[in-house]
Give the backbone structure.
Amino acid sequence: MSVIDRATALELYRVMRTIRGFEERATQLFGENKIWGTIHSYAGEEAIAAGVCAHLRDDDWITSTHRGHGHCIAKGADLGKMFAELLGRETGYCRGRGGSMHIADTSKGNLGANGIVGGGIPIATGAALTAKQLGTDQVAVSFFGDGAVNQGTFHESLNLAAIWKLPAVYVCENNQYAESLPVKRAFAVEDIAKRAEGYGMPGMHVDGRDVRAVHAAAGEAVARARAGKGPTFIVADSYRHEGHYYGDPRKYQTKDEIEGWRKQFDPIADARAWIVADKVASAAELDGIDREIATAIDRSVAWADQGPLASPIKLPEDVYASD
Amino acid sequence: MQATEARAPAATREMFYNEALGDALRLEMQRDERVIVIGEDIAEHGGAFQVTAGLLDKFGPTRIRQTPISEIGIVGAAVGAALTGLRPVVELMYVDFAGLAMDQIVNQAAQNRFMFGGQARVPMVLRTQGGSGRGNAAQHSKSLEAWFAHIAGLKLVMPSTPADAKGLLTAAIRDDNPVIFLEHKLLYRTKGPVPEGEHVVPLGQADVKRAGTDLTIVTWSREVLFSLDAAAKLADEGIAAEVVDVRTLVPLDLETILGSVRKTHRLLVVHEAIKRGGYGAEIAALVAEEAFDDLDAAPKRLAGLETPIPYAQHLEKSVVPQVDDIVRAAKELVG
Ligand SMILES: Cc1ncc(C[n+]2csc(CCOP(=O)(O)OP(=O)(O)O)c2C)c(N)n1
Ligand SMILES: [Mg+2]
């Protein structure tokens, strides 16, 4: 395990805490009928987005998923504009046209959440192709769930990236379920990372609860990509604390599992523990960060709530670009 | 009415349709290094229909990027590349394979700009070919333009002549939106004069390929050639048919169609694709909505039968409009 310096440790903690805070508030707003449609909470999986995106620059690209709030935040998005999007405001990232499942922030290289499982994998591959073609040292990271690994896009994209040695990193967030289907019933292979071998790229399997482990693995993979040495497949094991979507009755899980695993697999509680134990920072300092984040979220929601409702659809310019 | 676009007095050269397409690719790749071509068998082999022949030698394997057989991977990579600064041209070998890539076309390329609230542009071209007439049978002969016409966010081009093929492909590559560019497999070896050097035919302009006063035939792709042959036969019988080649289905140049119908008072739409749910229904409906009072007869459609394309030559011909079918339909409409 590489040693993480204090600034990095606190930044990772801050990003994870921000994601958790965002998800808690979004859940609350949904319960108050202020958000509608569907939201998918990233709570429990924060270490993955935080640990990976810590290595990315603003001009690096990511593609995200239906469970995309965490990636968006870790890539540097503005919380106010994210809340505004969920609230259907003109001030939202997508001017209320996209919603939770399509938030994109191209200014930070986020090429979008995606409502299609596996839909982002070829798109990240294409972004990596752009970097290679233009001779830049940009990197593209694709985040996707365990469910997406069984889509055809995964196969075609990883093969293309491998034969073309693209600067891409493929990150599977194995949260143990694809909607209701447990991973064990979706894969006959024990270690999903082994699939990398079939494409001729390195596969890494990390504890996705441990932000240090994710940070270390992603550091290697991103450096490899940036140096022109080709793609990497990372599988990060985690557990989603909430249902698949807001309101999921979770009939496919037992109460014991949900309660037990939620405690056992909590990257933020884990990070607090080692940060304090290793004397990186005190509990009081972390409490201070928590309070700052809570204030920032309050402020962001208040700002979002004041934004005008999304403007009427304008045709053709909303749909077609003109020169 | 839209006249044939003002052509610079550029020299023309006789070219095959596939050569004209290759010429457009070559010129656009020279003009803009962000333009790349990506697809199966496009390198040494020059593409299944020889459109990219010679380009590998000029531009090398990174810009003529040959891929494994991975339709959704290819189209998706093009979407990602387009979002991030390249201008990819995908060659999909047959439109019949679009089903494999449809998610990236419909849910990603077409909608990114809208879903992201205007933050994105997807300047890509998906070139592919369709149509019957070569005995390729049901899985390699379809005309699927109606699928794409129904998706908001795509443009849709179907050139009938070598000159239009070159000019429209140039415009499609320069367009900042995803453009579906449907060629016809039996047009590749048709010849015609093509302007040398830069030649742009703007998207959204129909072309009156033959002027006439008795009825308007609106058509596209290979049926333009059939309609012109039919118009020549009709002329022998004293019927003056005007042939409007829409060239781009989206955006559609309705003005030119309406202008023609207001003059001839009769509309016949001809296309190879299956009639049910075909794009001809859209044109007939638009004309009925916009120019009902100008019509002397109900709009008529002549289109493919509701069947997969059969293999045997006589059967294949029997299910898509042929020249004599058009002559007959025109006479019924006028008579
Ligand atoms: C192509 C496609 N099929 C099915 C769905 C419905 N769906 C949405 S999320 C999901 C499960 C995805 O599981 P996974 O990839 O593991 O991501 P997770 O939700 O666990 O983060 C399913 C089946 C979809 N959105 N897209
Ligand atoms: Mg999952």
